[in-house]
Amino acid sequence: GQWCTRVPLIFFGTVEWHLPDRCLRQFGREQCISLEVPDSQRAFHGRDGRQGTRDWPTKLKNFIEIWENRQLQDIVTPNQVGRMGYHDPYLDRYRQTSVRYMTPEGAADGALADGIERIKDMTTGRTELGNEDVSFIR
């Protein structure tokens, strides 16, 4: 569908990107690591085209070409089946780059879940430990 097309939305001199690859999970799709946000020529922001004649088709030619070829910009991922694993590449990157918790209670719950997952990793060989450490954890 068109909702999963990564394209510039153009209104006079304003260009904003529609970035569905950032919210695929909301639509039951497998979440991929988002691509970088393309430059939308921020110099155009704040202008609405009413301040005299503007040649927007010429100034925004590159964005218009992307829009006209939008069928080539679809984000295609399979449907999400089950829960995303703790070590899914998307979640690993998310934990490195995002603010994960909005409240102290959420942070406490998340820290507990992370701790349990780390202990599981240690006892299943995903994390290198000495034998005495693994025996202690078990």
From TrEMBL:
Under InterPro entries, the record lists: AminoTfrase-like_pln_mobile, MAIN-like
Q: Which Pfam families match?
A: PMD
Q: Which domain of life does this protein belong to?
A: Eukaryota
Q: List the transmembrane segments.
A: none
Name the Gene Ontology biological process terms.
Answer: meristem maintenance
Which residue intervals define the domain Aminotransferase-like plant mobile in the entry?
A: 3-94
What is the designated name of this protein? Aminotransferase-like plant mobile domain-containing protein
Q: Which organism is it from?
A: Linum tenue
